[in-house]
Amino acid sequence: MTAPLPELVWDGLVDDDQLDAETYARLVHDRAVHEEMARLRVREDARRKLRLERASALTAPVPRLLGDFLAVEDPEQAYRIGHLWPVGGRVVLAAPYKAGKSTLVSNLLRSLVDGVPFLGAFAVTPPTGRVVLVDDELDERMLRRWLREQGIGNVDRVVVVPLRGRTATFDLRDDDTRARWADTLAGIDAGVLLLDCLRPVLDALGLDEHREAGQFLEPFDQLLAEARIGEALVVHHMGHDGERSRGDSRLRDWPDVEWKLVREASDTDASGARRYFSAYGRDVDVPEGLLVYDEPNRRLTLAGGNRKD
Fold it and tell me: In Å, how far are 22, 36, 57, 194, 261 from 233, measured between CA atoms?
């Protein structure tokens, strides 16, 4: 029989000459369990201390009397984009496949950093920080071409993160991963974050968009707080009816505002179908209007008139 390990014979209570195979196996097992429990306790203590350390970096809310709360004077400017996007708000842009989501996002990007009216109709107050575009759908070459054609002036105010093929690196549920992203975004002075789009992230993380979208959106909110990012927009696909975000109801109650980009029903080539834009949410109610597309510059302009018109 194999001689017992010295550390298994505790304080001379077990005589190694009397150890049979069964006793030896039990002692080896018990020792392994003991060591694994010690490692787990160390990990749990480390995670607890790390959570406390990160939580201490955030400013906890201070309870205030209503009179004191109302006495604070807010700045007059209440919208990042007039009538569409409140300052500090979260937006979900919902659209059916191949409706022009990325084109609309690139138009939004130009408006936010160059200060030109969004869709030629809505005044913009550029953020103090940079606008970050996290794109997980387009090939880098296509993304580069589309953004170049947009003719953005203040290119130094934009940061692009091509994430296609590396979407799993955006697992914000993991504290360490989220901390790295928060440090990176804070380091580049991010003021607005655009995620185009949500579904590839959910797929990469193994989350069901019909039940588990909140498991990503909640740590996404934490990321915004930790990186001190004021506003965010998440692009998501519509369901088969082409009229609302598909999947988890959390996708509708999470944002402050929903933007909708819809394509006119057509039995022919969908690329030639007219597109319409609308927005609804907290302090936002913009009725559906026709979009006019300037193809050489990839520019969109709101022309007005809905599908019924």
Answer: 63, 44, 25, 5, 14
Which amino acid is it at 283? D
Burial class (CB in 10 A: 0-12, 13-18, 19+), 241: exposed
Token pair for 130: 């940079």
Query: How far apart are the C-alpha atoms of 192 and 224, rounded to whole Å?
Result: 9
pLDDT, tens only, 109-157: 999 999 999 999 999 999 999 999 999 999 999 999 999 999 999 999 9
Burial (CB count <10 Å: 0-12, 13-18, 19+), residue 91: buried
Question: What H or E segment, with its residue span, contains residue 94?
Answer: strand 90-95
Q: Report the 10 Å Cβ neighbour count for 303.
A: 14
The predicted model scores a pTM of 0.76
Distance, CA of 100 to CA of 82 (rounded, Å): 22
Dist. CA 257–CA 108, nearest whole Å:
15
Give the integer Cα–Cα distance in Å for 109 and 133.
8
**Residue 270, Cβ density class (10 Å: 0-12 exposed, 13-18 middle, ≥19 buried):** middle
